Amino acid sequence: AAPPSPHLDLVEEILEDLAALRTEASATEPNAGEVLMRTPRKGKPRAVEDAAADASEPEETGGGSSSETDAKTDEDDESVPHSIRPFSVRLVEAHLQHIRPMVVPKLRLRPPHDMSRAMGGVLISGNRSLAPQHHQDLVSEGISHIVSCCPVSRASVDFKHLQLELDDSPFVPILRMLRAVEEFLKTKQPNKKVLIHCREGVNRCATIAVALRMAQIMRGVEHETCARPRNCGDLLQEAWGKVAEYRGSPIITNVGFQRQLLLYAQLLLLRNSQVQWPEDWGPEVWVHSRSCTALPRSVALRARTLREKVEYACREVGMCRLDSICAAARIVDLLIRRIGISG
Known about the structure:
Elements: H1 6-27, H2 46-52, H3 67-76, H4 89-99, E1 116-119, E2 122-125, H5 135-140, E3 143-148, E4 160-163, H6 178-185, E5 193-197, H7 204-222, H8 232-247, H9 255-270, H10 283-286, H11 297-316, H12 321-339
Parallel strand pairs: 2-5, 3-4, 3-5
Antiparallel strand pairs: 1-2
């Protein structure tokens, strides 16, 4: 008989977590709790480490709320400032409700190639710019690198290409891709430009561009070439508003992307321009109930544990990092919606 597959053991654990999450959620009413945002130790996902250490750690990390355990994790975690944990979902929405009407630009026509400036050396567009008839426009603009945030059928050999096939869905942890984009940008020459595009040039590429612009603003603050924003809302509004103004039409209508950008703005203000989006922040961080409250803490913990296990399992069976991240996020988002506590 063939030996049992370790993947099957992990699948069984995931199914147990699914049942536990459903039970936990049905027994817990959503309340005005706090968003769970904590980055685990380096190495394997916390969920996988916990599964391997069950014998020595009788209390399950995924469902616990031990203040002693939490304090130890906070103390060990240097990647996320303590003051950002926890960040009330009500506060996130309060900031966004103020920002949204302030970043609606004056409408204007764009050129046929659809490209618009986002910041120095970075342009955004929809798929139209990649049409064969606009190849010379790309060359004339000095484009040497292209970041595709959606599937594309053609990629000219004249450009270096980074492919990020992301859904335009609120659950997608789009800012987990920011580091890859930043590293890609470092490979271009100073006198060249990068084009970041998605299907319509509204959500995916604009979100990446606004995040890059916020980091640029904070570099200016650090070099004392611009004033420090008063708060994360001001930082996001400044970057979002300027990219929208250049675009000449509303951008970032995806609420999940909006919330991620605000959280990233808070990270930038509390740390520095080099801070990275934490690897373990997933949709359980910005998903909330219909009454605009956070998931109950115990449910968020179980959702995170499940997502990390699914992501790890996907990687183990050969899926690429990007597909694993998005598949795990989708499963957790669908499950939370099936339970009926999200909005």
